[in-house]
Structures are given as C-alpha cells and as structure tokens.
Amino acid sequence: MSQQGYVAAPPYSQSQPGIGGFSAGFGPPNSSPHYGHYGDSSFSAPQPGVSKSTVPFGSSAPVGPPPPGTHQFSQTSFQNGPSTSRQQPHRFQGPPPPSNTGPSYPPYSHQLQPAYPNTASTAPAAQLANQLNSMQINSYGPGTAPSPPRMSSGHPASFQGPQSPPPTQQQMALPPGSQIPPPGNNINGPCAQPSLPPMARQDGTPGPVPPNPNLQQLSGQPPGPGYHPQQANYGPQMAGSQLSYPGAFPGGPAQLSGPQQKKLDPDSIPSPIQVIENDKASRGGQVYATNTRGQVPPLVTTDCVIQDQGHASPRYIRCTTYCFPSSSDMAKQARVPLAAVIQPFATVLPNETPLYVVNHGETGPIRCNRCKAYMCPFMQFIEGGRRYQCGFCSCINDVPPFFFQHLDHIGRRIDHYERPELSLGSYEYVATLDYCRNNKPPKPPAYIFMIDVSYRNINSGLVKLICDELKTLLDKLPREEQEEASAIRVGFVTYNKVLHFFNVKSSLAQPQMMVVSDVGEVFVPLLDGFLVNFQESRSVINNLLDQIPEMFAETNESETIFAPVIQAGMEALKAAECAGKLFIFHSSLPTAEAPGKLRNRDDKKLLNTDKEKVNFYEALARDCVANGCCVDLFLFPNQYVDVASMGLVTMYTGGTLYKYNNFQVDADSPQFLSDLRRDIEKKTGFDAIMRVRTSTGFRATDFFGAIYMNNTTDVEMAAIDCDKAVTVEFKHDDKLSEDNGALIQCAVLYTSISGQRRLRVHNIGLNCSSQLADIYKSCETDALINFFAKSAFKAILSQPLKVVREILVNQTAHMLACYRKNCASPSAVSQLILPDAMKVLPVYMNCLLKSCVLVGRPEIPTDERAFHRQLVTSMGVADTQVFFYPQLLPIHSLDLKNDAVPAAVRCSEERLSEGGAFLLANGLSLFLWLGVSTPPELIQGLFNVPSFAHISTEAMSLPDLDNPFAKKFKSILKHIQSQRPYTMKLMIVKQREQPEMLFRQFLVEDKSIYGGASYVDFLCCVHKEICQLLS
Ligand SMILES: [Zn+2]
C-alpha cells in the first residue's frame, strides 16, 4: 500500500521556487478579499459554492454511536446510549501505554470538582434570582406601540423590548464606573458607543424543559447547591409579572416618554457566570463519555472526567456547533461558523487514559486507498470482515490479511474493543520509514539555549539568573515515561553583535568557545561537541554555565543581532539532522548591522497592517519550519522591540512568546523562571504536519494557529506542544447526509521527544440537520469566540480595523436574527430572543471587541497589541474563554474548611464591594483587589499588617504566612495558575488608588477606559441590529 498520501508530497519540499506560499498561506484566501464568512457583511451575501469532484455517495456506512460503554459508571447521567452494565475491559494489543495500570478506567467516585460550596449567600451572583424585571429602556424597536410584556415561547432567554417610548433619542444610564462616554471614535465601529437601542426587556426562559438536549438528559439531576439553574431564575417571568426595577425610575412604564435616565438591570441579562455555574452544577465532577455522535460536551470551565468511547475528547477537539447544517444554503442563512478547535497534544487528567499506541510493524497504519483516512471507528466492516467501507469517502477497501477478523452478529468485529483504532476517538500509530524525512528514522530532538549577553542583560543579572537556573533545569528535560533519562540533546550559544558557540563535549576538561563574527552568512563552527547529552556532559556544561556571566562581565556591547541567532540555531539543527527548539533570551531591538536588523518603527499608522512586520522574518520562519526548528522567545524589553517582527518566527514555528516588560531580577524572576521551567518540561511533538480529513460534502477551508501552510491542506508546525490549538474552519461543498453526519479526522505526524516518528489521530463525528433549530441547539459559545478571535486577529493584518469590527458585530446580529426569524416562536419584533446555547455570545463578543488588539487606541503600545495577537492565535478554547472573560473570585468570604475555589462573580465594578477582596485572573494578568473596608482579619491573615493603610502595593508576592487565610489563598492561586500556560505575576491593587485603572480594564462588562461598550450597551446595540435585519 502506498503511504504517500500523507507525507510524500508537500512536507519536505518547502522552499520551492514559485510557490510563494508564505504570504499566500497566511494572507486571506485569494478568493475572498474580505474577512467574514461570505465576503461581505450584508445580510445574505451568497458564497459561490465550491465544487469538488465528489465520489458517489452510495450506501455509506452508517456511523452510529459506538456501542455501549464497556466501563462501569458510578454516575450514568451522561450515558446516552444503551446500558452500561456490561463490563468488558479493553484489551489492546500493541505496546501498553505508559504507566498503564491495565486497561480498566479509574473509578469515578473521584470527584474532580468538589460540589460547589454554598457561597451564594455572599456572592453577588446570587442576586440574580428574582431580579428579572421587564425593564423599560429606550425602546425604539421597529414597533413603537407599547405592548404588554409577553413571554417568548420556546426556551431561549428572551428579552422583550418595550415599545412605548416615542422614537426620540434617549440616554441610557450607564452602569456605575463607566460614566466616561468615549470620544466619537469611529474606528470602533458600531457599538463602540452606547447607541441606545431601546430595550425594555423581560427575561423569560419559560418552560420547565431546557432546550439543550444534554441538559434534558440531566433533568432529573439536582443542581449543585447554591446555584439555581438559570431557568429557575427566569421563573418570575413565568407569571408574566412585571416587576419594576428598584430605584430605576418611579412610576414605571407610564413615564417612559420624555428624556430620562434609565438603567438596565445587569441582573436581568444573561450572565456568563450563571451559565458556567449551571453547567458545573449539572455536569461537573462526572464522567463524560464520548459515545454519541453530535453530543455537546460540558463547558470548558466544567471539570469532569472524559472517557473516550469512540469520539475524541473535548480536550482535543471542540466544535463551534455539534450539528452542521445539511446544506450550504442553510449554512449561509445561519452564518454560524462551522469550525473545530483542535489541540492535538492537550494535557489529559491523571485519571484519564493516555493515548494507546498502535504498532503494525513494517506494514504501518491502515489507510483508505482513496482518501488516505486512517483506520478508525468510522470504518464499516462488510462482507464477513474481508472488506471495509470508508466513512469519509465511502470507498470499499480490502482488509489486509494480518488485520482480518470475523464479525459478530451485529456486524462488528470481534476484536472491536481490543483495538484502539476501532473503538476509540483518539490513539497513536507508530509510523514507518515512509513517514520519515528522507526515509530515515529521526534522531531525538535537540534544545539550543541562546543567551543575549549584551551589556544590559549582564548588568541586570539576567544572564546569571538564566545560567544558574539551567544547571538544575536540564535535569528536567522531557522524557518518555519508560526511559530513565531524556534523549534530548542540548547546545549553548551566547551572542551580542557576534555569536559564540560552545563545545561542551564530555571528554573536555573545559568548555571551548568559538566566535562567529561574520553574521551576514552564519555558519556553524563545530559539529562534534556542540549538541550533547546533558547527563554525559554535565560537568563541562555546569562549568560553562558558571563561566558565562564572568566571561562577559566587563562587556560594554549594547547592540545585538537577532535573525542571525535564529539562523545559527537552525543551521546547527540542520547539520545535526534533527528537529528541535531554540530558547532565545533577548532584550532589545536588534539594531546591530546584520540581516534582520530592525529600526524603531513604533509608528501607530502601521498598526495591525502587514507592514507591521518585516518580510525578512517571514522567510526566516519558512526556513525554520522546513528544518523542524521551533523558536521559543523570551523577551525582556525596556522599550519598543518590534514584537510584530521578532515574534513572527516564534508564531509560525509553533513556538511560544514570553514577554517581561522592564524586567527586574528581584521582582520578576519567579514569573520568568516558572515559565521557563514549564516550557522546558512540556511534552512537545516536533517536525509536525497536521492533516484534517472530512467526510463527503464539506472540507476544511481555513486554518488559524501558530502554524505554517505551504499548500491548502497541510498544516506544518516545527513543533506543537500541549497548549497550542489550531482552529479549523469548514465549508460545505455538497449536501450533507443526516444519516452519515459530518465526520472529521485530524492526523498529526510528528517526532516524539525520544525520536520516534508517530501519528496521532483524533476522530470526531458531528450530526447534520436540515432544521436550523438543531444547529443553534448544538452550538458552543466558547468555541465560537475562539474562532471569532482568531479569524479577526488574522483579518486585521489585511483589512481596516473598522471593517473587522463591523463584521464581528454584524455576524453576531445575523446569527441571532436568523434564530429569531426561523427558530423562535412568533413574538414582537422588539423582543430580543437568544438561543439558549448562545445566551452569552453577546457579552463574550463584546469582550473580544474590547481586547487591546481590536480597539484602535493609540495609548496601547504596538508591542503589546502584537504580543496579544500572537498569543491568542495559538490558544485553545479554555484559554480564550478566560482571556476574554476573566475569572473574578471573591476571597473575603472563603470557606476555609473547603478546598474548592470559590465561585466567580461577573466582571463588573458593581460586583465589587468596599468590604471585599477579589482575585482577578485572565491567564496573563493576576490582580488582588482590596476594598477600602476589607476586614482587618483578612488583611492581617494575608499581609501580616494591621490595616488597609499598611498594605504595600509594591510587593509582588504575599508574605509566606502560616494561617488559614494565607494557606487557602495560596491554594486558590496555585489552582488558578495550574490551569494556565503562562505564569501570572500577582499585582496588588487598592481601591481608589492609581493602579486601579489598570485593574478596571479587566472588568469587561463595564465600559472600558479605551471606549469599549459596556455589556448592556452592546446588547442594546446588537438588538438594534437584529431588529434592522428582521425589518
Ligand atoms: Zn476514504
């Protein structure tokens, strides 16, 4: 069998003249000059259908849910399929998984997320109940006649806009703390200012039956203590009562005419916190079995144990909707993005089964002859097991003799549960030589540490810090579980205007330095002795690390090079014929005379344009990818360093960018060293190529991530680690069959840390429907926001910011209008009705629009924006969720006896209180905000000082105290940090002191100091757009 399909063609043939692939690969698709799904933002712009030679779609294999689980559940609420009582342990052949304690799954009595403590009594979120009023607010809905409040029928949260006010402009009162109306800043496009659509609203989620099918399954389950299901909170509406908002405006609706100040009750609009807590209450701490096609998984914020029963874990793949529209017309109508966020190396919990490795020896993986899809649960065996039909292209293939097995009475192979590739959504194959570069088995990867030893880094103590840390850190290089030591080799380079290579061969008594001063054409001065095994060369390496700070102690060299450093590292890997990673520690703009020299271009006019980066670095990135060279960049800037250019190589090679502004060894070492440790220890796949295959009728059309694409199908990554996700957009090219569903197979070919070539395969099946309501029911807002963020952050490189913003707002309104028109029961046009699964899309969308990348404000440093843009580009769903809507945790009311992290409150100043203390984290920043009346015992417990006035905000960490408050607080910090790829530095903020401004930017439901709209205003704006679309 030919193994060509996957690797042969493109992967190792980069740098072909004439491909011009780089810019094409990263730019917008040639065919669609505008960002946005259908080329423009009009309501129904058609998308020319994409035609593709389609294979006859004959008697396709039915791809039903995999058979009943083989494991026992202590809780069966998620069990959709048949009975689970039958216990049949997996008996996989092939190499046992690392640390495999037998194929049985761990017991599930284990509760990951302890039931939520009853903090509701103190959490402002509790106020949500009973405050759902039908507010009368500036309603200029198309219908202006007042109408009685009415319930929407159907399940979605609905808001009724009152139609009473005459169509005169009215000012909506803004939430406290947001009283600065931004200057008319048209770059912010629609919704930048409160544009006052009128809404009086009524929240109603009538009906006892939630629309989400998953929730329905759980309907018998009592919610966790302290949190009422959102439905219940909308309860008061059921009675049709119209409560007036306390203190809003006397007299109620009758007085709506005329100018007035009114405020929409934030508690009456959908709360992200409540959605998160409801999901935790109903699905947290349980087992989620992936045995059903199209099943919407628990939210990314809900802790549960995932059990692979035929579809990839949501840790690996999350989709924007788990039900695709059956036709492209329908897709265009709804404009719900069809995308999957794939994190192929995501970390799984210790009590979840690691991936099994299948080894077919020299035969290699079994693949469909036509579409080259890998053997997976979507293949249907026929003719007594002699042949199988491919679930992706319907081709009938012969079963290789060694793989033959009889079928049982229901047509399933007898060895179904013994083979991961037949029964699991995710597994690995050992790849054969056909899958290797030059048909040679790969060598283990290498890590090269490249340290900027210019004056500033020596003087600040940074170089010494790095060298000291490496001495212990190199013992922690990643290794396969069964190996004693890491196979990764290491090498060392220092540089300023020239490069210094070091020979650290184990037989040397002293390390030797070789200087390369011709940085115009870098060469590697030594092969033997440059890349070594740390264990063998430990003493020489430690000797070197001791010497480096002294060696350059007297330096007065302030200029640095940068591109030649990367070139040197890449050449060294190339010469050693291995893939690897460069760890570059760099501080300043590379102004020394050399290729890739950068100027201070901190010109706001270039913001977010392609000119922001230098083409030279694109070409360098392409070379790096072609040679399996990943670049991790640790930046320590004091001023502008052109992150857009310098970070480019990092982004396109699957590397990670870290930035420590104004680095001070004393204050910032813990953060940097923690990042460095985590980065070095990370499980990483090298020299990777990802390919996404789909069943007939749709295909992957666009890819977003820290990736490089040389053609339209192969996603290349010099390396990919556990934190990196690639977001893939799909488009129809034919009708989809409701019976067969929409199947996706993602295969990543990579070199493991021990130098083994492997294929990691993830499969997931989605449903298809001709009913729009099914699409909306199966949406996942967190994945949608991930998609919108990445696509918008890419689009701003080629389109005006204003256009990109408008498209985001327009598409939000469009999706909701389509739902309103086609899925919701008839009701007054002025009523805002949101699908249950997209209830919080507006608030999250507003957060995205307020991110520093999408607000066109000159106060925001260009480097900061470029940094954020690059980070988000490779984020998975969990990271984008918390990045755009930070966690805000009350810590003045901690339950000291309970280990649980307190439930979050909404990110709004209204939720803060003078007597409270709150922790805010978004994955990058971490604040401890203290109200002026924070209880003295809390202050004493955390800071060991008697009062608020004594707290120093200079401190970057809390004193190490041995009391229950301090311990509990540290454990919360540790928990929050453990889930995030970047180490967050704690900032202490006191109420009404200057740094509070910085903190307030993260209160994302409020109007931002950069002019971003408040949630309430944005919702009104979206409502207005919807009304326009519907009229
Ligand atoms: Zn096929």
From TrEMBL:
InterPro entries: ADF-H/Gelsolin-like_dom_sf (IPR029006), Beta-sandwich_Sec23_24 (IPR012990), Gelsolin-like_dom (IPR007123), Gelsolin-like_dom_sf (IPR036180), Sec23/24_helical_dom (IPR006900), Sec23/24_helical_dom_sf (IPR036175), Sec23/24_trunk_dom (IPR006896), SEC23_SEC24_subfamily (IPR050550)
Keyword Transport: yes
Gene Ontology CC terms, in alphabetical order: COPII vesicle coat; cytosol; endoplasmic reticulum exit site; endoplasmic reticulum membrane
Residue ranges constituting the Zinc finger Sec23/Sec24-type domain according to the UniProt record: 365-402
Source organism of the structure: Cuculus canorus (Common cuckoo)
Keyword Oxidoreductase: no
Membrane topology category: Peripheral membrane protein
UniProt similarity note: Belongs to the SEC23/SEC24 family. SEC24 subfamily.
Protein name: Protein transport protein Sec24D
A Pfam family that the UniProt record links to this protein: Sec23_BS
Positions with biased composition (Polar residues): 41-54, 71-87, 110-141
